[in-house]
Amino acid sequence: MANIFPRWSNWLPFKIIFCLLVLGGGVSAGVWYYLNPAYMRVGYQPAQPVPFSHKIHSGQLGMDCRYCHSYVETSAYSNIPTTQVCMNCHSQIKSDSPKLQLVRDSWESGKPVEWVQIHKTPEHAYFHHSVHVARGVSCVSCHGKVNEMEVVHHAETHSMAWCLDCHRNPENHLRPVSEVTNLDWEPPAGTTQQKIGAALVEKLHVNPPVKNCAGCHR
Amino acid sequence: MSKRILQHPAESTTGKRYWRSLGQLQDTPEFRSWMDREFPQGAAEIQGDDVSRRGFLQFMGASVALAGLSLSACRRPLKNLVPFTKGVEWSVPGKALFFTSAMPSRNGAMPLVVTTFDGRPTKIEGNPMHPVNQGTTDVWAQSSILDLYDPQRSKGYLFGRKPSDAASFEKALGELLKGTPDGAGLAFLTDGTVSPTQERLRAEVLKKFPKAVWASFEPNGSELEASAVSAAFGPGHHAVPVLQKADIILTVDRDILGVEGDIAAIRGFAAGRKADKAGTKMNRLYVVENRYTLTGGMSDHRLRLAASRSGAFLKALALQVAKLAGDAGLAKAASELKVAETKIKDRWVEECAADLVAHKGAALVLVGQRQPAAVQALGFAVNAALGGLGTTLELRKTAATPALSISALAEELRKGKTSALFILGGNPVFNAPADVRWADAQGAVKTVVHLSLESNETSVAAQWHVPAAHYLEQWGDALAVDGSHMVVQPVIMPLYNGLSSIELLAKVVGTEPDALALVQKTFVEAFSTQADLTSFWAKSLKAGFVEGSRASAVTPALQVDAVAKACAEASAVRVVENTFELVFITDSKVDDGRYANNGWLQELPDPITKLTWDNAALLSPAAAKKLAVETGDVLKLSVGEKSVEIAALVLPGHADDSISVAVGYGRTEVGSVGRKVGVDVFPLLTAAEGRFRVGVTAAKTGRKYALAVTQEHGALEGRGADITRQSTKQEWAENEANPDYFLKMGIDAHAPANFSLYTNPPLDDIHAWGMTVDLNSCIGCAACMTACQAENNIPIVGKEQVIGGREMHWMRTDRYFASEGGDADEPEMVSQPMMCQHCENAPCETVCPVNATVHSEDGLNVMAYNRCIGTRYCANNCPFKVRRFNFFDYNERSITSLYKWNLISDKGMPESLQMQKNPNVTVRMRGVMEKCTFCVQRIQEAKITSKVHAGDSGVQPRVPADVFTSACAQVCPTDAIVFGDLRNPDSKVAKLNKDQRSYRLLEYLNTQNRVSYLARIRNPNLKMPDAARAGSASKDAHGHHGEHQQPAAPKATNGGHA
Amino acid sequence: MSHPHKVYGLGAEFDSAGALLAAAEKIRDQGFSRWDVHTPFPIHGMDKAMGLGKSWLSAGVFVGGFLGLITGICLVAIPSFVLYPMIVHGKPYDWRTFPAFFPIIFELAVLFAALTAVFGMFALNQLPRFHHPVFNWDRFKRFSDDGFLLVIEARDDKFSESRTKALLEQIGGRNVTLIQD
Amino acid sequence: MSKSSVSLETPAELKREPLVANNHSIKWVTENVCSIVQSPTPKWWLLAMCITSPIALIGLICIVYQISNGVGVWGENHPNGWAWDITNFVFWIGIGHAGTLISAVLFLTRQKWRTSINRAAEAMTLFAVVCAGIFPAIHVGRVWYAWFLAPIPNTNAIWPNFRSPLLWDVFAVSTYFTVSLLFWFVGLIPDLATLRDRSKSRIAQILYGIGALGWRGSNKQWRHYEMAYLLLAGLSTPLVLSVHSIVSFDFATSIMPGWHTTIFPPYFVAGAIFGGFAMVLTIMLPAAQIFPQLADMITRQHVDKMAKILLLTGSIVGYAYLMELFVAWYGVNKFEGFTFFIARANVDGKGWYQWSYWIMMFCNVISPQIFWFKKMRANYIAVFIVCQFVNVGMWFERFTIIVTSLAQDFLPSSWGHYAPSTTEILTFVGTFGIFFSLFLLFMRFLPMVAISEVKGVTPEADPHHNHPKH
After folding, report:
1. Distance from C-alpha of B913 to C-alpha of B148, rounded to nearest angstrom
2. Cβ D2–C124 below 8 Å, yes or no?
3. Does residue D84 contact residue D428 with C-beta atoms inside 8 Å?
4. Which residue, among A1, A4, A5, would best test binding to D if mutated, counting the most D CBs under 10 Å from its CB?
5. Which residues constitute the domain of residue D407?
6. Which of B72, B629, B825, D466 is the most buried (most CB within 10 A)?
7. What angle do CA D107, D109, D113 make, to 5 degrees?
């Protein structure tokens, strides 16, 4: 028997190659799936220090988003409301609720409530809220149906490709500027989102940066 | 930032200590009043963000708290958003707020508008409403924001060099003053800035302490000019040149467009220099100077002459003017002046005088402030003879009360009877003239209280050091160049509890040290005639100055006999043959040393020498040859018993018997930036001889010293017609009808028309951003470089790196010395701002392998830092070499530890410096390329605003013409840089782009630059002997060019390794 | 196909390349099909002597190269023209920029062709195959030195232990050995 | 095998000098080549490794230092964005051309003398490409983002710029390395089988056995093997020409004076062959002295032919240099004229790097001219010395091209000197350590000469050769 290698070794290279292919494919698929904003971000739902319910305030009470997020139409940032804004109502309503103890403490001590950040724009991207709102991009397009969320979660991927989806085809997402904060808005019967969107693109001269990197990176 | 700042105890030593924490102040009345003052009411919040990028430091220490991983947040670290509890009026998170203010200086305060983001000032601009500067500023105003955030600023009281506190100081102050009820033994020393409130408090101090002594000192001040004015016109006046009214200007040893002028003079000159179309009226500038200055660079005719011989020149000129104008008084005065034996080019003087006299009433002669008072007085007499009084030379009543000179004060102190000396600003131990022997004098005082921004040489020699408030931190007032009353409005609470000088004086007087109240009281007294003072205050505060408060001109007659007497009494300037004169020049960056710890200024190349991080002995090529030295050789300059050793820098166009050296370097007690930078030449400067000194010997030491010069090569190499196009007024008039006159110069005159096989993709945005740079207006002051640095978060890299050629400035001002025939001694100087040209066919783009730099539809060559991997190929393929690479992590690492192994060296930017960063511009990391973006953050802001304004109206959103501009264009004192929308026919840039003088660099490459230059027009007097030289270096001569080559700094021997 | 006696075949050794060539011609003429020669270097004329035609590997390589070409065109064109057209150096984003894409298309064509050549050869030669019955023949290792060997497999229809052995010895084979599997 | 395919037969009518001298047998070839690998480790080899491997380690330390601190630890600056890094890259990649050229082009043109040197030359190619690949990889500012170069679909929806010559480089160099590696490995398979069959130790048997992939030398295998080898040679030939052309595009497609030149592709390819052959000789001449067993395989005839190639390619390169000067003069473009006549040739004393230009001129154009003389071609010492000149000269050629064009370009204001840093120098020196260490490992563990191919050119290999065995 002068054979150096046993008979089973003939299949070994193929087995190794097969394993490597499976492993490589698995790693690629894993990276693809897990290291993707669709997994990393979507569904992120941290507990907030105050159990504030958007579902009650925005959904049931029908408060406009801009009551609290008051600078969304003027600033790049959509602000988190001050304690004062909470207290505008809650000094009268549910003024004894234990859930609001932190808010009352904040109001008395002057120490702000530390809310947990959910949507975080990457450091190299400069997102501007006011221009989006002014051009008919609804809150719901990026933040999902917050009015149905008891606890807010990250609803969309916020990846660059996702941004580009809308920047390239804004007609798929635009709505009349007056309906921007109406999270339940649907295109009226007899028309479609595309038709309305295309008309708005035309009317408002919507021309978001697509080739211009400096639109968002500067 | 692992700690939540919000829960910090007030005394925390580990957290941020640059501003008051919430815990410290939340319930105190001061906090409330401060809040009311800064943000009277309303609602706002701070959104968490990362300081490393946006420098977004949170107001009051509210902060993003990185609390690590928690179960509910297993995918990413927990970050918090911290809103205000109560909103603050006007403050909208993420939006800039603008406040008017003013930067005090000895030349008159600079009216400013300060940009703040969430309570922290980030950028300074000129006040566009003020007639003096109309929105423009200068290098010092731009960089003063960095002084505010200087991490090595004085942070507390020092007593005997040991930390103390405000309470101890108050106690000590009380005891000091108790000891001397009439003020005997009290002395005050202030700097030369004029503040109405300080003047008022001075009067109160002297009223309360009548025996107190009050002195004032500015190392680079204008005392000689003041005495010349008072000799010529009587005391209490000062002279203000009105350059916009002058058609013919002669400066004699006076850098009126540079360090010896002010923004009003620069703007006045530029206004008279506009070359809108061929044949328009344009001023003519004759310059007599010992070294190239910005003024010399703008000259039509320039005469190299040692400062010590300027008197001789002026005498010859005055005699000639007197002869032509028939002014016997002037002739008499001039003939009385005793001057050094000097050979002056007769024809130069004759033709210059003839030109001046021919423009009687519109001629101006300016004499250097370092010249003897008699010479300056004679200069005023010449102006009077030329009919310039009241037109080109305006006289005003001085605002400041006379004070003792520092020499007199030193004598007083040496008597040993002074118990307390208050030094309000300034650094006399370092920069008082050597013969004053200030250190001894100060040592004779029992208690010296020194108020300053930094702990300097004077502080360590004083018993008490009091940290000063930066002008952006405390209320104050000041007078602008035109004498208008301005309120210095603070935009941030004192970061380190510093006191302003008026607060300290108020403490001395015993009134409430409330700066706002003090300033308002002055205001009320000054404008008591106003009906509604409250709204007048508010209106003035909003405008930044008090309208109508401009100082009015007075018209005293020239006392020609007094001038003659002064001339007769003045002793002649000695000239010692075979020695040099040493001219002490005000440094264009650190001034008298006060800005030594400002990294932006230290790294800013001097407009003339392009030297950074140093001073040097400037001398002419001929003098260098005589001494057998070249740039970088250390010279020993000796006079009397004193000597200094300083590196030589050979500068074409310098007078051969003169050496110039900038003062203000060689500071010893200073932060790490300014330490060991340059050589202190104050030991050679004496009060007796003034700011030039004769009889100085220079000797080669044989040692070498590495100078960090940013422009190695100063010659144009026969490329003048390609790069810096020029013509003369006369030649332009001849070619008025030729649209190609400026387009077909240099290689473009020969190259065939560009032809492209491609159809370029359309740049079809509604806007097309572009820029023009008017070389005729640009004086090369480099204010644009500093503005760019402040706006765009550009780091400094340190001297070693500058020597290695890694400076990061996005724009530079190229300075060429060029002359036809290679005349090394008499070259012309040309300045050219150079930044990314935003080529439509950008060569940098195609070579980037990762699409990190591409083109936008509005014509920008955009750079996505986060995509860049740093191949540097784009920089290589840039014909203008305007791209800048982060060779190291200049933002995160100290410039002294760049070569230490990264693993063991500390990283991170001082927090106070993070506060300066523009939140709308990425702070770049190492390994990425960067370059001028045309201030794309401003473009985007403007576009977004136009879109938000358009709303759902259906109006096409479009940025209106000239509603914003780039940082460099905004700062430019001469409006040479104009930025805007080329596609908007109403915009300035679109109009200038069509100017006949408009040309683009290297057109033959077909890069289709978006930056165009407007050719420079010189206005020579054809009768002058040197008339033919004007602009000749930029003419398209074939084969017989030659320029002088500035010997390069020994860069190559200092390659960038540790 | 399993052989009851696990006989793989018969091996014979020849003196020289020429002798082997002559022997191969004879074996071919005898009508054997499952046999081969093992030599330290390829012998000129052996293909003909064994009745083998031209290798078809070249056709596969052409296909591979062509696939590389198509891949290259798609790789450069789809992102540049369809997925994210960008304005780069004022160059159009359509077919007119193709000259700038030639290098990558070319390189990919060559790469694919070369990979096809190598791995196609492996496949045709059934490599890697570490264990093989011929290695059981103790004189087999001489093939990689200076041996000229001829092996006829037992699977060949014409194979017969005794007759084939005789044939091999007759045509000059030495050390004719029965190779066990 | 058909006539159209390669013939290993030496036509008898052309009475050439034998490629294997002294009429050795096939067995002799095996014995001699394998004895290098299978004899005990010689002392000189250990000594050489002790020198080269620390040098390689220093290079690696420099690379780690550079990556952790930034490109600033090198001497590059504005305007010299590239200097030693790309010089070294082009230098090594140029050297890496000889191996494939010898293997492929000479194979296709039936230059059978190649057989004894092609294996070592190919190995040299691979190691040179390894060294070359280091520089573009580490010269980028953010190495950790170098994967942006790969066209991978990503959530940013952004792609590399396929118009960039640097991306072409990525594809060209990686393809070249892959194909060269395959070519080399395919050639090694029969020889690894030889080593496998001769090895006594179990470990060696297994290791060589794995490398040999179970090669049995059967004619059915040889048939496909030869076809594969021929095809690889056919593919490698345009590849080798394209790679250096593409490397030259880095410069030729730019707009810098001195770079923007259409002559670059042929000039660079010629230069690469030139430099590559010099490096082959640099290695093979000492190797032939160290291993006397190889002396009959690497004969004077080989050296003579390679010297002639050096003369030819050196002259082509010289022609290119002169043509550049001519075009610069004829084109009347002042910027280009300045680069060639002043920055490089320094006719008026204003050039900064004229020494580099004249070193290049002397080494690359003048020194090979001695090979017009047969005596010089036959003198191993002279050949070796000229090869060293060529190695130096080719490095300076790249340095001249890169640095003179960048240091003094369009605007005099941005001109700047360049000086290398210690780290930069040590990194380059380190690549020599890596190169020679790898080559020493190759000499020790793999057959330096293509055994089966050399056997194919022995007289005995001819089936019609009637010489009795032994």
Report:
1. 9
2. no
3. yes
4. A4
5. 30-143+161-461
6. B629
7. 60
Mean pLDDT value of segment A15-34: 94
pLDDT in tens, B331-343: 999 998 888 888 8
Predicted pLDDT at B72: 35
Same domain, B86 and B130: yes
> What pLDDT is attached to residue B1040?
35
Does a structural domain hold residue B1026? yes
Report chain A's mean pLDDT, rounded to a whole number: 90
Rounded mean pLDDT, C141-167:
89
In a domain, D55, yes or no: yes
How many CB pairs below 8 A link B and D? 221
B195 falls within a domain? yes
**Inter-chain touch C145–D465, beta carbons under 8 Å:** no
Per-residue pLDDT at B34 exceeds 50: no
Cβ contacts below 8 Å, chain B against chain C, sum to 46
pLDDT tens track for B939-960: 999 999 999 998 888 899 999 9
Residue B450 — very low, low, confident or very high, per pLDDT cuts 50/70/90? very high
| pLDDT for residue B66 | 33
Residues of chain C in contact with residue B846, where contact means CB-CB under 8 angstroms, are 88-89, 91, 100
Q: pLDDT class for B820, splitting at 50, 70, 90?
A: low
Which of the four pLDDT bands, split at 50, 70 and 90, describes residue B55?
very low
- Residue A198, exposed/middle/buried by CB under 10 A (0-12, 13-18, 19+)? middle
Grade residue C5 by pLDDT with cuts at 50, 70 and 90: low
Query: Residue range D110-135: average pLDDT?
Result: 88
Q: Tell me which residues of chain B, numbers 845 to 864, contact chain C at a CB-CB cutoff of 8 Å.
A: 845-846, 848, 851, 854-857
Vertex D190: Cα angle to D184 and D191 (nearest 5)? 75
Domain membership of residue B996 (yes or no) is: yes
Which chain A residues are closer than 8 Å to D209 by Cβ? Answer: 4-5
C-interface mutation test, from B754, B755, B756, B759, most C Cβ less than 10 A away: B759
| Cβ separation A3–C140 shorter than 8 A | no
Which CATH number covers residue B263? 3.40.228.10
**pLDDT tens-digit map of A141-162:** 999 999 999 999 999 999 999 9
Contact call for residues B1050 and D419 (beta carbons, < 8 A) = no
Q: Do C39 and D222 touch (CB under 8 A)?
A: yes
Q: Cα–chain-centroid distance for residue B320?
A: 37
Domain with B459 in it = 158-221+401-526
Q: Which residues of C touch B758 (CB under 8 A)?
A: 90-92, 96-97
* Cβ–Cβ contact B847 with D under 8 A: yes
Looking at the fold, whether B113 and B185 belong to one and the same domain comes out as: no
A8: which chain C residues are within 8 Å (Cβ-Cβ)? 131
- In the complex, which subunits touch A with 3 or more CB pairs below 8 angstroms? B, C, D
The rounded distance, in Å, linking the Cα atoms of D380 and D382 is 5
Confidence of residue D21 (pLDDT cuts 50, 70, 90): low
**Residue among B719, B843, B870 minimizing CB distance to D141:** B870
Q: What is the pLDDT of residue B26?
A: 36
pLDDT at B1050 over 80: no
CATH code of the domain covering residue D58: 1.20.1630.10
| One domain, residues B895 and B934 | yes
- The verdict on residue B556 lying in a domain is no
Instruction: Answer yes or no: do C16 and D465 touch at CB < 8 A.
Output: yes
Which has the closest alpha carbon to B245: B96, B46, B383, B344? B383
Q: How far apart are the C-alpha atoms of C76 and C105, rounded to whole Å?
A: 8
CA B692 to chain centre: 23
Identify which of C15, C31, C1 has the alpha carbon closest to the alpha carbon of residue C150.
C15
Are residues B860 and A123, on separate chains, in Cβ contact within 8 Å? Answer: no
b/e per residue B831-845 (b: at least 16 CB within 10 A): bbbbbbbbbbbbbbb
- What are D226's two structure tokens? 């030869």
| B923-933 average pLDDT score | 93
Residue D16 located in a structural domain: no
Domain count, chain B: 5
Domain count, chain D: 1
> In the numeric block, which tokens belong to residue B1048?
């390069």
Of D80, D140, D411, the CB nearest to B870: D140
